[in-house]
């Protein structure tokens, strides 16, 4: 049998062994969490300035259109990015330029593969392939190839000396570019991101426009009653000023008349704004009906194609 001294020693060793195991387990857990913290973009502190191109803002730089960045997403599993753009005509141009796209990761020499997966009217959906999970910033380089307008075509004719004028053409050959910047801190991660067929992209575009129109209708329906409240308030102020005139001097009455006139002008301005809002609301509701009909037609077309 163990002596009392030996028993205490054995108990101490067992306790000490458990403490060591607990210590090493805790150390491993801390190291694992530290590794995750240092390697993950989500946890990593980054004091570099965010250079993300703004969403939903006209971006100048091209000759014939402004670009509007609508959405920028990334699927880390498939290493693809998807950029949704719209174009806006500059100065009432009536012809549509052809846009070209290149992409490059910041600090890299080689370009990334770019596909225009959808283009209809002013809508573009571009996919960038081979983007690594540890990317920091990706630049989408956009340039345009526009056919010459009729006026420019005429100006390329022969001059009085019989020589061909090429000044305009040389200017046209100087390709302008716009770089859209995508910062990992501002790009939405979408694990379901994939290439769709044309009908699906058309549906997405219509649904997005419908959502914007629905929001516009909601805002107008909230704003119109507010105008009535402003008019009521101004009329109430006019009534109070009129009531006080019987206790005023002639000079004070003249000042009151001026205040009343100011409020009457304000009432007319509010009525004008209310009328504009009501017109916009009517147009927005009409547009919403058209978009819903268009979406239904696209969905029928999609179902027909799917059933074949």
UniProtKB/TrEMBL annotation:
Region (Disordered): 149-169
Source superkingdom: Bacteria
Coiled-coil segments: 267-305
Keyword Coiled coil: yes
Spans traversing the lipid bilayer: 21-39
Keywords: Coiled coil, Membrane, Transmembrane, Transmembrane helix
Identification of the protein by name: Uncharacterized protein
Phylogenetic placement of the source organism: Bacteria, Bacillati, Bacillota, Bacilli, Bacillales
């Amino acid at each position: 049998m163990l002596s009392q001294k030996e028993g205490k020693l054995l108990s101490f060793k067992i306790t000490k062994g458990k403490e060591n195991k607990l210590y090493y387990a805790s150390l491993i857990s801390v190291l694992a969490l530290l590794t995750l913290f240092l390697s993950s973009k989500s946890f990593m502190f980054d004091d570099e300035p965010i250079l993300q191109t703004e969403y939903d803002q006209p971006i100048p730089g091209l000759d014939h259109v402004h670009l509007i960045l609508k959405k920028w997403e990334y699927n880390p599993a498939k290493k693809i990015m998807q950029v949704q753009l719209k174009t806006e005509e500059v100065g009432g141009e009536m012809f549509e330029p052809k846009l070209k796209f290149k992409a490059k990761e910041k600090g890299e020499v080689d370009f990334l593969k770019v596909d225009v997966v959808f283009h209809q009217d002013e809508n573009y959906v571009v996919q960038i392939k081979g983007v690594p999970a540890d990317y920091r910033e990706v630049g989408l380089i956009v340039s345009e190839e526009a056919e010459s307008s009729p006026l420019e075509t005429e100006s390329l004719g022969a001059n009085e000396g019989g020589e061909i004028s090429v000044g305009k053409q040389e200017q046209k050959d100087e390709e302008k570019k716009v770089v859209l910047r995508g910062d990992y801190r501002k790009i939405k991660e979408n694990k379901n991101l994939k290439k769709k067929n044309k009908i699906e992209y058309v549906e997405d575009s219509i649904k997005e426009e419908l959502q914007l129109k629905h929001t516009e209708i909601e805002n107008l329906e909230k704003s119109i009653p507010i105008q009535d409240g402003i008019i009521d308030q101004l009329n109430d102020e006019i009534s109070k000023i009129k009531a006080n005139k019987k206790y005023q001097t002639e000079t004070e009455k003249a000042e009151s008349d001026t205040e009343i006139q100011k409020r009457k002008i304000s009432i007319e301005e509010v009525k004008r704004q209310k009328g504009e809002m009501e017109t916009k609301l009517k147009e927005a509701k009409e547009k919403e009906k058209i978009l819903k009909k268009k979406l239904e037609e696209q969905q029928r077309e999609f179902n027909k194609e799917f059933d074949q």
